[in-house]
Write a structure and sequence with these properties.
41% of the residues lie in helices and 15% in strands. The chain has 380 residues and is an alpha/beta fold. It has two domains: 136 residues, Alpha-Beta Complex (Aspartate Aminotransferase, domain 1); 235 residues, Aspartate Aminotransferase, domain 2. It has a seven-stranded mixed β-sheet, sandwiched between helices. Strands 9-10-13-12 form a four-stranded antiparallel β-sheet. It has a two-stranded parallel ribbon with strand order 1-11. Strand 5, helix 7 and strand 6 form a beta-alpha-beta unit. Helix 4 packs across helix 9. The protein starts with 11 loop residues before the first helix and ends with a helix. Bound molecules: 4'-deoxy-4'-aminopyridoxal-5'-phosphate and glutamine (GLN).
Length: 380
Amino acid sequence: HAQRLQGLGTTIFAEMSALAVRTNSVNLGQGFPDTDGPDSLLEAAIAAIRAGANQYPPGRGIPALRQAIVDHQQRFYGLSYEPDTEVLVTTGATEAIAASLLAYVEPGDEVIALEPYYDSYAACIAMAGGHRVPVTLRAPDFRLDLDELRAAVSSKSKVLLINSPHNPTGTVLDDTELRGIASIAVEHDLVVITDEVYEHLVFDGLQHHPLTAYDGMAERTVSIGSAGKTFSVTGWKIGWVTGSPSVVTAVNTAKQFLTYVSGAPFQPAVAGALALGNEYFDSLRTTMQAKRDLLCDGLASLGFGVHRPQGTYFVTTDVRPLGYTDGVDFCRMLPEKTGVVAIPHQVFYDNVEAGRPLVRWAFCKQTHVLEEALSRLTKL
Ligand code: PMP
Ligand code: GLN
């Protein structure tokens, strides 16, 4: 295979989900809900198939979905977009990330990414011929150190790749951090790709702030969202990009030759879901916060060091209080010993030491499943 695939191996999520099936384990590894999204959403996709929405839709997405994305950005953040030129529907956020990096990264360019990073970032930066420059979010608080970010910028920097709410740490970047990112991006004329797929999973009364709303950002920001997390349909792979007309044109230039278009019958369904009342979004958040607390409290009482997340559906723990030192060894041992699967942080770092003792658990599961996992973990 080509050099660009060097070291990419198999994604940790596929590896650990296969291990979960093989060992009949409770899978708190890969982040996907074990219940479906709202009925109205599911029925709308079925109806769309029956109504014949089964051929190539428009490349940028069906007009109803582009309008619904615009309305959603206006309703939650007061942001205005033009549906014909400033919105692009993609095959999940994953394609949006890949197409954005292909659109902006020249071979040899540096891409600064928050570490631990979502695994597709590293792979797509490499496939685009770029070099990854990590800025580490460190335990216990996993805050962004703006001095470290500033120090990571060089004459080769092209793109800042930001993710908030952040997988896997659960950090929700605050106003000071976002303002700092914006000022560095403007000063060094960087493109900012911001992955905000967990925008509706923010807890304890905190707010998600879109990076594009900061001064000087609108023209340089590629904002990425997804239906997968917000509507519990991770298998549908409907995501989107919003940005200036030139941003959307650039990303679409790559997107059109990756997948051409994205899932026709899912698009009208997601358009309807984005217009659901506030009670849907509120209940998603409060239900998930209760699951967070159940799993965090349970893991703490088992002796883990628990880093309670501000957002996402993942909690990070430190395994050292239980006498283990290495998260990869811990996660390889765990299914056989207890019948539970989790994900080691280490695979999401260049600076492996910062993630060595950290393990991520997904809490987007039914209460009885989380309880079963906690009960199995008493075998540790
Ligand atoms: N970004 C982050 C941070 C994620 O956690 C995920 C989901 N695993 C994605 C992107 C991919 O989203 P999608 O399923 O819409 O491709
Ligand atoms: N985003 C989910 C996670 O972080 C699933 C990722 C995947 O399977 N590619 O677990």
